[in-house]
Design goal:
- A six-stranded antiparallel β-sheet has the order 3-2-1-6-5-4, with helices on both faces. Strands 7-8-9 form a three-stranded antiparallel β-sheet.
- It folds into two domains: 14-184, 2-Layer Sandwich (Beta-Lactamase), CATH 3.30.450; 231-278, no CATH class.
- Helix 5 packs antiparallel against helix 6 (213-227).
- The chain contains six helices and nine strands; from the N terminus they run H-H-E-E-E-H-E-H-E-E-H-H-E-E-E.
- It is an alpha+beta fold and 278 residues long.
- A hairpin with a 4-residue loop joins strand 1 (57-64) and strand 2 (69-76).
- The chain is elongated, with a radius of gyration of 29 Å.
- The relative contact order is 0.10.
């Protein structure tokens, strides 16, 4: 068997398995160091994992603690649905693997009576058998890693201990990518908050230094434009007698859209109706 062939537990010697495992672990580690975006990392991991086990579909399912569900985060292969699949943590094979920290094997989808949600999906995508391993890093339980096949009992020769060690390394790579993603999101939110506070300070300074209403509105609109990209800012004041909004001021005016002095009446449900000039 060549080095690029999947490794079957019944045919490989312990020495061979140990060497192959170390090689694959090193490949996963290198990918984790070079790819910080989760989807890109998982996409390249498919090729590495195919050296360990034959499969037609690969799934990474992450646990959502807030909703108590398992969410399909990544799927490779035409035998699996898109990322929008969400299942209960108590009735899904991935959920069972996550809860018990033990692999789950389904040799024949047609005879399986557990996991009704995922079995229905498996049948719809012509999956005949699958196995799921707990995806757990040294810091936390992330979810599960699943392998699917169009063949019945396709994973009977898989060495669970061998594949679990490889899955643990994948979990470490996934956790690193998730932490990097969280750090980027936190940095983006912090930058947005700084921009928002800066805009509020600019507006406050404008209010203090400018008492001319038209000029004041134009300066405030300019402050807003630095934070929120837009082409037009309008100030509408409600007129109770006409049950309409009067356009009191317009900045960055597009004369085809709106004019100062127009009225925007409201219908019976309080929605804007046709505008009226003057």
């Amino acid at each position: 068997m060549g080095d690029e062939s999947p490794i079957d537990g019944d045919t490989a010697t312990p020495q061979r398995q140990g060497a192959d495992l170390q090689r694959l672990l090193l490949e996963v580690s290198r990918l984790a160091a070079s790819r910080r975006d989760l989807d890109g990392l998982l996409g390249e991991l498919v090729t590495v994992l195919q050296k360990a086990v034959r499969f037609d579909g690969l799934a990474v399912v992450l646990h959502d603690a807030a909703r108590h569900v398992m969410v399909l985060r990544f799927a490779a292969g035409s035998t699996l649905p898109g990322k929008d699949l969400v299942t209960s943590e108590e009735t899904d094979a991935a959920g069972l693997a996550w809860l018990t920290q033990q692999p789950v094997f389904v040799a024949d989808v047609e005879r399986e009576t557990r996991f009704p949600e995922i079995i229905e999906v498996a049948r719809a995508y012509a999956i005949r058998s699958f196995c799921v391993f707990p995806l757990t890093s040294p810091l936390r339980r992330l979810g599960a890693l699943g392998f699917a096949s169009r063949d019945r009992d396709a994973f009977h020769e898989v060495d669970p201990a061998f594949l679990q060690q490889l899955t643990d390394e994948v979990a470490l790579a996934v956790d690193n990518a998730l932490h990097h993603q969280s750090a980027e999101e936190a940095e983006r939110h912090l930058r947005q908050e700084h921009e928002r506070l800066g805009m509020l300070l600019d507006v406050n300074n404008t209010l203090v230094s400018n008492l001319d209403p038209p000029a004041l509105f134009g300066d405030i609109a300019a402050c807003l434009r630095r934070v929120v990209t837009h082409d037009l800012t309008a100030l509408l004041i409600y007129d109770a007698e006409r049950n309409a909004f009067r356009v009191a001021a317009v900045a960055f005016e597009n004369t085809k859209l709106i004019h100062e002095g127009e009225f925007v009446p409201l219908d019976a449900e309080g929605n804007p109706a046709r505008r009226v000039r003057g």
